Every structure is written in C-alpha cells, then in structure tokens.
Amino acid sequence: MKKILIVIIVLVILGLIIWKVSSKALLPLNPDNNISSTTTVSVPTSQTVKVSDKLSEYKNDELGFSIKYPTTWERLESPSNVTFTVPISDSIEKNTIAKLEAKIDVVSGTCGFPPITTIKERSSVKIKDLTFNMISMSNTVQGRNYFNRMYTLQKNSICYYFMFSSITLSPSNKGYTGAEAQKIGARNVLLVDTADSQFKDMVRSFAFVIGPAGQDETKVAPKK
Length: 224
Hints:
Blueprint: H1 2-25, E1 46-50, E2 55-60, E3 65-70, E4 74-78, E5 81-85, E6 97-108, E7 119-127, E8 130-141, E9 144-155, E10 158-169, H2 178-204, E11 207-208
Antiparallel strand pairs: 1-2, 2-3, 3-11, 4-5, 5-6, 6-10, 7-8, 8-9, 9-10
C-alpha cells in the first residue's frame, strides 16, 4: 500500500513539473517574461519627397540614385528600374498621343546603345562631374510617329540607362482633317517636346546616393 502511495505521489510531482515547464514555453515572447524576442523591421529602399507643387524628388538607396521629376508623373517601381508615365489628358485640347514614358534602368555590365541606324542626334553631355552619352531617334511607321531619347552613365561595373519614349498617332488616321488635324498635330508636338524637356531636366538632377550601411558581421559577437 505504501509503495502504491509513493508511486502516486511521484506521478503527481512529475505532472506538476511538466505542467510548469509547458506553461512557460507557451508564454508570449516579451520583455515582461524575461525572454528575448526578435522584431523584424522593414526598411524602405525608396522614398519620394515633394519638393514643390510641380516637382518631387525620388530616392532609391538600393539602386543608389536620386532624381527630381514632375509631380504629375505616375511612378512604377521594380527591383532594377523605375518607370514614369506622363499623363496624357485631352480634357482641354485633343491629342493623338499613345505613349509618353520615362524610365531609369540599372543593370550590371558595360553601357551600350542598341544597334540603331536612324539616329537623329548623338552627343556627350557633361552634368556636374558626370558624363552622359546620349542619342535620340525618330521614325514614322504606318501613321505612328516614334521619338526616343536615351542617356547612359557608367559607374564601375554598373550602367544607368535613362530612356524617354513617345508614340504619336497621325491625326488623319484617327479621322481628323483640315484645320482640326493641324491643330491636333501642333498639340502633339508641344506635349512631346514638353515631356522631353522635363525628361532632360530629370537627367540633369541625377545624383548618386549611399544608403545606410549595414552592420559588419565580422565584428559582431554572436549572442549567447
């Protein structure tokens, strides 16, 4: 009888010990329980700051640059580039523009323009202490007018590509004739030239940035 009682007491004690340990394991990880916890903090790689009513500044620490661009331009980011779509509004005056777009692409390797035969202009542009190579192209195919301007900038093993693209449909292909077609054509030219000028200003505002440095892992003693 005594042996049975002793066994029961031992089992009760073991049960209490197991309950105590398991209850501690289920406690939330917070400072009140004196148990260390790890918090993951999301650090943004890019940010946009409004400089004025007409101008904003875009900064990307991961891609390593900042630029200023018209606030009305719509921005779309990806891991290796940022694209700006220029709004095309016909609420005031009609136009037949199908595309107005600026893009900055960051790639590994040596800069090089695509093999193009119809180059309109080629030059090197000095901006501050940076030298950009530039080409522009224009072409008309089946009532579509294409105009593109491209800059390249080499930094070590990284190439920065700056591309402006426009596609304009012929007013006659959209059913416009006479004075109205001429007016729309002039409007098209004005919108493309304005966006192209703003794109060139964006390139002139380009600057390299250095993001926040991470912790040197070789100097960090692992926590015990």
